[in-house]
Amino acid sequence: MKLRISVKILSILILLLSLLAAVYGVFSNQSYGKTEFTTIGGELVKMYGRGLYHNDSVSIASQAISQDIVTIILAVPLLLISMFLANKGLMKGKLLLTGTLGYFFYTYTSYSFLSMYNKFFLIYVALMSMSFFSLTLMITSFDIDNIKFYFSDKIPRKFIGGFLLFMSFVVGLMWVGKIGAAFLKGGYPEGLEYYTTLPIQALDLGFVVPIAIMSGILLIKNKSLGYLLAPIMIIKEISMLTAITAMIIGQIYSGISMSVGEMVIFPCFNLIIIYCLYLVISNVKENNHMVRR
User: Fold this and answer.
1) Nearest-angstrom CA–CA distance, 145 and 143
2) pLDDT of the chain along its 293 residues, tens only?
3) Which of 114, 157, 234, 258 has the fewest CB neighbours in a 10 Å radius?
4) 29 CB contacts (<8 Å, ≥6 apart)?
5) What is the three-class DSSP state of 101?
6) From the centroid of its chain, how far is CA 183?
7) How far apart, in Å, are the Cα atoms of 111 and each of 40, 117, 124, 168, 282?
């Protein structure tokens, strides 16, 4: 079954607008002058002072630019490839497209609520909205009751589901630890800088972690919904971990100190989750005419 025309149109618009925003974010370099000040939480913050993210801190700007690079070199090509495969009616393509749209939804939701206001704000909001509706259309296009019959019985459900559960535990513990430490001290979380709240932690703890836990458990239990949610979460984790790896490099380049653990653990997790995607895609049975009813 080919892609709905609405998904095609939305996906093309997402591709074009995200490429515009990401390329401008990476290559805009006009100088506005650097400023540093102490926040009400007592944290010394340096503003980036250049390009699209000149009003953001050095930390957030370097992360945003790293995310833009991942969008250009990974997400946009993956969106093109998955659109092509999905339009041919391939299950691999539909799963990849759904997961990739999940990446764009998460990325531009975070941009809409985290980044300091800039000239691309309405584009961020448009990308957030279009990716949400195209993601919804893709999810509702699957026959959930029969989706697991498109997968080989040899798919290592326990390994894939177990790693999703493990990643959920790591991310949840990391963010709860960050927030809990601030709660115990009675101050602001480290790294809040001059921003008002923690949108990334809110998105992860409110949506990503629970959905990843659910997908891991459902896949291990051989439930149909797990076969849809797991690939979506795996692609989300790949994009997140690739972005984190790029952010680590970007922050080191910007002179921000990073722990050895962060520089080693996240790239290793990235390789494992890429392997999980390979396991999922290689176990998809295309042209399945034996779907059980």
Assistant:
1) 6
2) 678 899 999 999 999 999 999 999 999 999 887 788 777 667 778 888 899 999 998 888 988 998 999 999 999 999 999 999 999 989 999 999 999 999 999 999 999 998 899 999 999 999 999 999 999 999 999 999 899 999 999 999 999 999 999 999 988 998 999 899 888 887 788 777 878 888 889 999 999 999 999 999 999 999 999 999 999 899 888 887 887 787 777 667 766 666 666 677 888 888 999 999 999 999 998 865 444 43
3) 258
4) 50, 51
5) helix
6) 27
7) 24, 9, 6, 22, 33
Give the three-class secondary structure for 57: strand
H or E segment to which residue 221 belongs: none
Mapping DSSP to helix (H, G, I), strand (E, B) and coil, where does residue 273 land?
Answer: helix
In 3D space, the residue among 251, 281, 291 whose CA is nearest the CA of residue 92 turns out to be 281
Tokens found for residue 26: 């990476």
Phi–psi pair at 284, nearest 5 degrees: -80, 135
Go through 84-123 and write b for each residue having 16 or more CB atoms within 10 A of its CB, e for each that does not: ebbbeebbbbbbbbbbbbbbbbbbbbbbbbbbbebebeeb
Torsion, CA 8, CA 10, CA 16, CA 22, rounded to 10: -130
